[in-house]
Automatic annotation (TrEMBL):
InterPro entries: SAM-dependent_MTases_sf, tRNA_(Gua-N-7)_MeTrfase_Trmb, tRNA_methyltr_TrmB_bact. The keyword Nucleotide-binding does not apply. S-adenosyl-L-methionine binds at E75, E100, D127, D150. Pathway: tRNA modification; N(7)-methylguanine-tRNA biosynthesis. This is tRNA (guanine-N(7)-)-methyltransferase. Belongs to the class I-like SAM-binding methyltransferase superfamily. TrmB family. The lineage of its organism: Bacteria, Bacillati, Actinomycetota, Actinomycetes, Mycobacteriales.
Length: 255
């Protein structure tokens, strides 16, 4: 249960002239679960998780979370879920959908959320771009979080970075007006790359950091594994927030 389908992962061909990342070898990363993790996975993944496949369609968030009308946040690349779980505990009224390719990471998070007794996290195993495209309805999210995305430091791998004009547009379309995109990185070169893209998406208004009036939780609560490594390396943490502008028809201006 919870395995990625064999063969090429689903990849939408975007035809909008924007730049989209190519999925690197990350989806094929191996890793094993401990016996306990495996048992918990078998017991709970069916209820709390799903795997992106070619047949995946829009998620019915209300029925998945068994409650209606709550704000929904998607975190892409939740890793082992350290900040996901810590934040979800502070925002019980928010539905949190954690998207991650790496099964042992999701398994670790499943253990942590079970121990914490949290019922506001669901998991999707798959590529964040495809999950947003296929499984998340336009204009439905209060927030999107991307914490410490893979920096792909070599120039020839920069096209794999998740922050590019295409994903920024895709995220903007999935956010409801007023919704928030929050990105953090400890990688100086990636931070400069993001800085260059901060105004590229007309539907997103750059809000900077900190943004105390943000309508969703922006305090990451804990130092994640990757952030901890950044601290040890004395890297600065760079945080970015944007807010989804009102729909173009509401402003009367073209998008
Ligand atoms: C550097 S780690 C950061 C993990 C976590 N956010 C943290 O701060 O500890 C980046 C994570 O993003 C995941 N990832 C990379 N590309 C992804 C994609 N296209 N969709 C979903 N997850 C992805 C990787 O598997 C990895 O766990």
């Amino acid at each position: 249960m919870g395995d990625l389908p064999a063969g090429r992962p689903p990849q939408t061909h975007f035809d909008d002239g924007l730049d989209y990342p190519r999925l690197g070898g990350v989806s094929f990363r191996r890793g094993t679960l401990t016996e306990n993790q495996h048992a918990l996975w078998e017991e709970r993944f069916g209820e709390l998780g799903t795997v992106l496949t070619e047949d995946s369609g829009p998620i019915d968030v209300d029925s998945w979370f068994r409650r209606s009308g709550h704000p929904t946040v998607v975190e892409i690349g939740s890793g082992t879920g350290t900040s996901t779980v810590a934040m979800a505990a502070q925002e019980p009224d928010t539905n949190v959908i954690a998207v991650e390719l790496y099964k042992p990471g999701l398994a670790k998070m499943l253990g942590a959320l079970t121990r914490a007794g949290l019922d506001n996290i669901r998991m999707v195993r798959g590529d964040g771009i495809e999950v947003l495209t296929r499984m998340i309805r336009p204009g439905s999210l209060s927030g999107v979080r991307i914490f410490f995305p893979d920096p792909w430091p070599k120039a020839r791998h920069h096209k794999r970075r998740i922050i590019q004009s295409g994903p920024l547009h895709l995220i903007a379309t999935r956010l409801q007006p007023g919704g928030v995109l929050h990105v953090a990185t400890d990688h100086a070169d990636y931070a400069a790359w993001i800085e260059e893209l901060r105004d590229v998406e007309p539907l997103l208004e750059f809000k900077g950091w900190p943004w105390p009036e943000a309508p969703i939780l922006t305090d990451r609560q804990v130092i994640t594994k990757f952030e901890g490594r950044g601290h040890r390396l004395e890297h600065d943490i760079h945080e970015f927030t944007w807010q989804r502008r009102p729909a173009p028809e509401a402003t009367g201006k073209p998008a």
